Amino acid sequence: MSTNEHLVVFDTTLRDGEQSPGATMNKAEKLRIAKALEKLRVDVIEAGFAIASQGDFEAVKAIAESIKESTVCSLARALDKDIDRAAEAIRPAAKGRIHTFIATSPIHMRHKLQMEPDEVVEQAVRAVKRARNHVEDVEFSCEDAGRSELDFLCRIIEAAIDAGARTINIPDTVGYAIPEQFGETIGQLMSRIPNADKAIFSVHCHNDLGLAVANSLAAVSHGARQVECTINGLGERAGNASLEEIVMAVRTRQDLFHIDTGIDTSHIVPASRLVSTITGFPVQPNKAIVGANAFAHESGIHQDGVLKHRETYEIMRAEDVGWHTNSLVLGKHSGRNAFRTRLLELGIQFETETELNEAFTRFKALADLKHEIFDEDLQAIASDTRQKEDVGRYGLVCMRVCSETGVIPKAELTLTVDGKEHKVEAEGSGPVDATFKAIESLVDSGCNLQLYSVNNITSGTDAQGEVTVRLERGGRIVNGVGSDTDIIIASAKAYIEALNLISSGGIRQHPQVSDV
């Protein structure tokens, strides 16, 4: 494809997506998602915010070392220390990018930055030039561009391009824009800025009004050639523009857009499920493209139409986005090498043989319970194994739960706290309530339970249940995820994982908290 025909897909699941409350990922999890994004053929992977924490820096660096096909990017405020840290993190990348930003709206300049417009332009230019000293590929973003004055945007963008920025991002940071107005803004910027032809114009839309995808597509129709998005629309507050929706909208409506992405759409659903499993954010059934009901038909009229001719009620083929029965033809007699090979095909690689052996043991145990093992089961096994390897303060040894009609449910658990076993029990309104109360009778965490969610990993009554538990304490929010064919055991695992996260004390700095 020539530049004019290609829409650059910039995925920020690992940066902006991770800013969803409770969605923080460790380095191994980020690397798994990055490899899935590379398999998707994402053009640019924003791997994180290198200055935010040592953990984020190490994750960006590990991704830069591992990813060969996609450009690896790190975010940086328009500060020398941010830019230098980002450059250090992406240095091993085959293709690296520094993405620097500064706020441009009157409300942000006045109340957050406490800077005059002239100072903001000066700092932006200095940041872009410093980034260009490290890499050729520099992106500049006007934070809160959706509420910025058009004349000032023209001024600062022209200066940033002159300083060496080759991608200019126009973010609707707070989800304030309306499609017709936002598209018109992009068109005016590209026509009014004298050197606009020297840069690719990009958009980064938030979903506060449910318009992120619509705003992004409106911008594309007015000349934007990069879209920043996330898997499942993950992101701060109401989320970001959804990668799968943008890609399939452009692919399906070629009659309007006359461009396409390089995305291998057959990997969309597996990537969606991987992100959901790792973050603990389930995908709603009616979510476009990747929701369980996206290609399901209940109406008799619809069913009849689809049976006669698929296109009567389906504008896409389910197979094209990865909806197919992808079962692993392995059982309890299968060998370790076949198991390892399939994991590698899914982008799952353990750092030690001990971890692989533990995962293989779990696979064998699950094969005894289930007739078919699906790729989603393997992803859950991998996540569960890593959780066990990352031993926290609390652990589950065994449990027994009694639930009977007319009898108050009771849970008896053996837990470890700092390696020492304790037996606890409690009654509750249901088996899960009793289990959580039994755990709290020992740990007394002081946490508030904000979310309890159960989802089936695959179909069938023998499917593993995946439980997400969201806890809050002192303003800090974490998600714990547990999986098992028994949802009560999965619930206990999830609650204990959340407790380990909340007690670890490693609070990640919010990437967009500025200290200028």
Description:
With 516 residues, this protein is of the alpha/beta class. The chain is 41% helix and 21% strand. The protein is built from 17 helices and 16 strands. Strands 1-2-3-4-5-6-7-8 form an eight-stranded parallel β-barrel, surrounded by eight helices. A three-stranded antiparallel sheet has the order 11-12-13. A hairpin with a 2-residue loop joins strand 12 and strand 13. Helix 1 packs parallel to helix 2. The protein starts with 7 loop residues before the first strand and ends in a 12-residue tail after the last helix. The C terminus is likely disordered.
> What structural class do the secondary elements suggest?
alpha/beta
Count of runs of 4 or more consecutive helical residues: 17
Low-confidence stretches: 510-516
Output the radius of gyration.
24 Å
Strand content: 15-25%
The averaged pLDDT comes out at 88
Spatial strand order of the main sheet: 1-2-3-4-5-6-7-8
Number of distinct beta strands: 16
Architecture blueprint of SSEs:
Layout: E1 8-11, H1 27-40, E2 44-48, H2 54-66, E3 71-77, H3 80-90, E4 96-103, H4 106-113, H5 117-134, E5 138-143, H6 150-163, E6 167-172, H7 179-192, E7 200-205, H8 212-221, E8 226-229, H9 243-252, H10 254-257, H11 268-279, H12 300-308, E9 327-328, H13 336-345, H14 353-369, E10 373-374, H15 375-389, E11 394-404, E12 407-417, E13 420-427, H16 431-443, E14 448-456, E15 465-473, E16 476-484, H17 487-504
Parallel strand pairs: 1-2, 1-8, 2-3, 3-4, 4-5, 5-6, 6-7, 7-8
Antiparallel strand pairs: 9-10, 11-12, 12-13, 14-15, 15-16
Helix pairs in contact: 1-2, 1-11, 2-3, 3-5, 5-6, 7-8, 11-15, 14-15, 16-17
Enzyme class: transferase
Keywords: Acyltransferase, Amino-acid biosynthesis, Branched-chain amino acid biosynthesis, Cytoplasm, Leucine biosynthesis, Manganese, Metal-binding, Transferase
Function: Catalyzes the condensation of the acetyl group of acetyl-CoA with 3-methyl-2-oxobutanoate (2-ketoisovalerate) to form 3-carboxy-3-hydroxy-4-methylpentanoate (2-isopropylmalate).
